[in-house]
């Protein structure tokens, strides 16, 4: 099965691969630079969800694939602080797009205040860790969970939620 993933980010590509392998879905995965058509730093559940759906549906229109994943990170304000949030969408020809959320953690105030001032998390994390490309590696979630859950594992979980729901709806 030809499947697209709407990103060239290694953490996202690896996540889709791992989830498809664990579901024993034989596939060729095509990474596509799909626009999220939302802001660089989505600031609500709704905007982050829209980013995930837009990426997945863009891939279906642009590439000769049967289905496509869109994965999107963002943040949202809560009464308990600014939370890192993540969503994934699975679009398939002739079917309703499936959308699921993943793990969420509170960001430290030193990070949150920079985001409220308009910086994007990718840059803030590079500055904070004094290392490049955190977002393609362990991600903010990996840093702040001491490496126990990295960005790939977090997005793998979301991709499994999507594939599992697709299988359920096929069988029922
Ligand atoms: O190439 P793409 O697919 O766009 O991957 P990305 O790393 O930019 O990821 P998103 O666009 O989904 O994330 C939206 C913003 O949040 C940042 N971000 C989200 N999760 C992050 C994480 O775990 N670590 C570092 N930055 C993160 C990211 O840099 C963007 O500015
Ligand atoms: Mg991005």
Automatic annotation (TrEMBL):
The keyword Metal-binding applies. SUPFAM superfamilies: ITPase-like (SSF52972). It is an enzyme of class 3 (hydrolase). Residues 6-157 form the Non-canonical purine NTP phosphatase/PRRC1 domain. Keywords: Hydrolase, Magnesium, Manganese, Metal-binding, Nucleotide metabolism, Nucleotide-binding. It holds the Pfam family NTPase_I-T. InterPro entries: ITPase-like_fam (IPR029001), NTPase/PRRC1 (IPR026533), YjjX_NTPase (IPR050299). The keyword Transferase does not apply. Its EC number is 3.6.1.73. Transmembrane segments: none annotated. Its cofactor is Mg(2+); Mn(2+). It catalyses: ITP + H2O = IDP + phosphate + H(+); XTP + H2O = XDP + phosphate + H(+). This is inosine/xanthosine triphosphatase. It comes from Lederbergia graminis.
């Amino acid at each position: 099965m030809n499947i697209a993933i709407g990103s060239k980010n290694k953490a996202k590509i690896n996540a889709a691969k791992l989830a498809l392998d664990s579901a024993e879905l034989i596939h060729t995965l095509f990474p596509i630079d799909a626009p999220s058509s939302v802001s660089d730093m989505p600031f609500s559940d709704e905007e982050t969800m829209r980013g995930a759906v837009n990426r997945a549906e863009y891939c279906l229109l642009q590439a000769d694939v049967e289905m496509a994943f869109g994965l999107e990170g963002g943040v949202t304000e809560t009464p308990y602080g600014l939370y890192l949030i993540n969503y994934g969408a699975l679009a398939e020809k002739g079917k309703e797009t499936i959308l699921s959320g993943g793990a969420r953690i509170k960001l430290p105030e030193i990070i949150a205040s920079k985001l409220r001032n308009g910086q994007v998390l990718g840059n803030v994390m590079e500055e904070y860790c004094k290392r490049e490309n955190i977002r393609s590696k362990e991600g903010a979630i990996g840093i702040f969970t001491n490496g126990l859950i990295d960005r790939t594992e977090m997005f793998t979980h979301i991709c499994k939620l999507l594939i599992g729901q697709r299988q359920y709806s096929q069988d029922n």
